[in-house]
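Example S7 (structure tokens).
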């Protein structure tokens, strides 16, 4: 008979504990903001899991600013995060995919602002496929004795104080960076906390997965077509869920590239710079990956509009460099 060994491990840190232990000056504010974020994420976790039983699947009958049909869960998640950030007292302003303009929380003296996609991948809500919340936290630029403005959000991604996502998948996971590597926290239902489950995520320099909506292949420019053909010649695996967070997360862990190129119909691509591309680009770079629009580093782009879009290539660095080379060799 085999000996059974009892392993006792000290209990993993919660998000708040992990960041409170850090020494940077904003550590305590940041841990409180992340606490607000995780409180909302826990509620959204329940909403997502009970959606069919609770009758909150399907469209609500309205469109967001992008002209996309809003799902009931889009609106519920949006309200959950807005309420949590507002109540924290630490967020002055929010920019959301679901709202045309900025949302003033009334916390005029607060020092931070948030850009978010409260529920990304909404076409997958009704079919029980992974979806996510994506967010960026910035320090505001306007003085705290003034009402915050859109300019507080229109900062390059390099200015992010924190960025990340919550993935509502086979488990609910928060993946986060504050510029010191990438950490993952898994929602433990028993403890009712997001607990540190991976203290340092790093991606592979070279991956073997490519993720792209190939239904638009004929609309892609030659460089993208050549890269996709290269992936197939190399017999890389094609994997595409249609939920950015889920596609990105898989490639982050396994090594791969996600592509959402421009097309004649969408010359700026589909994905939004502020609350989809920048947070994931911050994570990718902190994990050793790259993110570009084909020419420029995503994090260097100076935004000019809240709902600005960009072509997007993100993932393992050698793969991203390869597609950039092909895009530039016309
Ligand atoms: P959404 O904000 O309506 O959910 O759109 C964003 C989603 C991303 O999650 C995903 O990468 C992309 O749209 C998929 O688009 P497509 O259906 O064109 O492949």
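Recovered sequence:
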């Amino acid at each position: 008979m085999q000996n059974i060994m009892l392993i006792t491990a000290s209990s993993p840190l919660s998000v708040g504990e992990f960041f409170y232990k850090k020494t940077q000056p904003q550590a305590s504010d940041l841990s409180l903001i992340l606490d607000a974020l995780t409180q909302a994420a826990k509620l959204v976790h329940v909403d997502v899991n009970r959606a069919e039983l609770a009758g909150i699947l399907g469209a609500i009958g309205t469109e967001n600013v992008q002209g996309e049909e809003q799902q009931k869960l889009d609106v519920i998640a949006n309200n959950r995060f807005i309420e949590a950030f507002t109540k924290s007292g630490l967020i002055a302003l929010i920019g959301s995919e679901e709202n045309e303009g900025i949302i003033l929380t009334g916390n005029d003296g607060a020092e931070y602002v948030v850009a978010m996609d409260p529920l990304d991948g909404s076409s997958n809500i009704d079919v029980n496929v992974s979806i996510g919340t994506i967010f960026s936290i910035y320090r505001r630029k306007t003085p705290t004795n003034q009402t915050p403005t859109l300019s507080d959000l229109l900062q390059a991604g390099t200015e992010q104080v924190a960025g990340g996502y919550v993935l509502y998948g086979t488990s609910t996971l928060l993946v986060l960076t504050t510029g010191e590597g990438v950490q993952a926290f898994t929602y433990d239902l028993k403890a009712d906390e997001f607990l540190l489950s991976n203290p340092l995520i790093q991606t592979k320099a070279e991956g073997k997965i490519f993720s792209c909506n190939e239904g638009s292949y004929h609309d892609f420019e030659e460089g993208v077509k050549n890269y996709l053909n290269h992936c197939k010649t190399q017999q890389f695996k094609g994997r595409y869920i249609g939920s950015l967070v889920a596609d990105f997360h898989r490639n982050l862990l396994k090594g791969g590239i996600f592509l959402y190129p421009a097309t004649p119909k969408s010359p700026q691509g589909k994905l939004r710079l502020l609350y989809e591309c920048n947070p994931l680009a911050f994570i990718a770079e902190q994990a050793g990956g790259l993110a570009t629009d084909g020419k420029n580093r995503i994090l260097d782009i100076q935004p000019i509009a809240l709902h600005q879009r960009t072509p997007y290539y993100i993932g393992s660095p050698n793969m991203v460099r390869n597609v950039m080379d092909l895009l530039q060799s016309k």
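Notes on this example. The helical segments are 15-20, 27-54, 72-88, 222-233, 244-254, 273-286, 317-328.
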